[in-house]
Amino acid sequence: MPRILAQLLAVELLLHSFVEVEGQCFLELFAGQAVLTLALIFKNVPCCKPWDSKWGEHMDVLKHADQLHRVARSGRLGQAHLGTPCQSMSWARSPAVRAVNAVRGLCTLTAAQLLLVQAGNNLADFAVDFCVNMYIADCFFSVETATK
For residue 16, is it within any domain? Predict the structure, then answer.
């Protein structure tokens, strides 16, 4: 079976199965194909289901931000990884929508670009708050960001 097909089947199985976790566990947010979660599961690391809005509203981090922040503060997550989307966050994006002196968005944006930047800012704000909550709970976190 081709490797990518096996990964897709594993993600579907993971999303539609009951996941019971005791003690601390790993959580992947903005998971994409959830490859990191799957790799950790294959190594017997306790993992929560990965979150990504592409799997439905029930997995939208912004709609459930309060719940996710509570979990982060609880200390139940030993590690979390945030694979923040790069649609508007990458410095390599053309046309540019941000700059070093305008990290929350350039002032010359079109209406469509402004919506994209605002969505990215909302995700970035969530990510920062989530990481602060993980830090307060003395838990580990990592953030993946796009670069040139």
Answer: no
